[in-house]
Amino acid sequence: MLLLLLAVLLVGGYFLFYVTFIKLPRCKSSAKLHGKTAIVTGANTGIGKTTALDLARRGARVIMACRDRRRAEAAIQDIVQETGNNQVIFMQLDLASLKSVRSFAENFLRSETRLDLLINNAGLMNSGKTEDGFGMIFGVNHLGHFLLTVLLLDRLKASGPSRVVTVASKAYEFGKVDFNCVSAHRDLCLGENDYQLWWKYCHSKLCNVLFTYELAKRLQGTDVTCYSLHPGAVKTEIGRNTGFLWRLFFTPIIFLFFVDAELGAQTTLHCALEPGIEHLSGHYFTQCAPVLNIARKARDDAAAKKLWELSESFCGLS
């Protein structure tokens, strides 16, 4: 009886903790998206798939920008079956290849007449190098999305009002941008063990926040706005390539304290759909609300400008 009572207290305590501190608010927008076109990167799983599903349910034409055709087509089948929207399209995109990013942009601009939402969702925490010799995390999480956005800006402007939403993370608070390291080694820091990959991930998320901040400045006077966000602590596949000890330590934490992808997508959807937030372009959001008292390094004008110019150089744009 005592053990049963203890179990009930533990379950009840965990439930209260979950609804008080973990469970995230939902996007309240009732917007319909018929006639609108959205791109979602990394849309075959996790937050990306949930975002694509929601946009499709609202009537949007959704471009699933993914590397793996087989997984993307399986996700499309799920989305079409659940929403009844047949306007869910696969387009090949490998963010670890600047050539692939350019090819995707060319194919999209040739085949699609408008772009209303660009959701830069894809992210990873993998070791290795990209096709172009950049650190994998830097190349995919920041540089690939940077080039993709820049190549699609004219179409976004022509389709306005339109939005660019970039999924960052609260991990940016631990990040920094070491421009000497980036310039010399084409990576955010050195090393390939799980601990060092975590730091690279944090640095890349700061890049996402700074990129959005600088992008908003460059979009002033246009009908395009942009937002970065923390989706919450979400059960996704981002750490699927980490080592055994890392997974052994974090798996129970993730099981108990992380939310599912549906809840994790809500701030993305809020930034994409909520009316009246245009004046908050360039801001960082969490729990469907802007963070107004953000860390100073996330509003470093000089660092944001330097990151933009260096990214242009790496992508061959300058």
UniProtKB/TrEMBL annotation:
<dbReference type="Pfam" id="PF00106">
    <property type="entry name" value="adh_short"/>
</dbReference>
<dbReference type="InterPro" id="IPR002347">
    <property type="entry name" value="SDR_fam"/>
</dbReference>
<dbReference type="GO" id="GO:0016491">
    <property type="term" value="F:oxidoreductase activity"/>
</dbReference>
<comment type="similarity">
    <text>Belongs to the short-chain dehydrogenases/reductases (SDR) family.</text>
</comment>
<dbReference type="InterPro" id="IPR036291">
    <property type="entry name" value="NAD(P)-bd_dom_sf"/>
</dbReference>
<keyword id="KW-0560">Oxidoreductase</keyword>
<protein>
    <submittedName>
        <fullName>Dehydrogenase/reductase (SDR family) member 13a, tandem duplicate 2</fullName>
    </submittedName>
</protein>
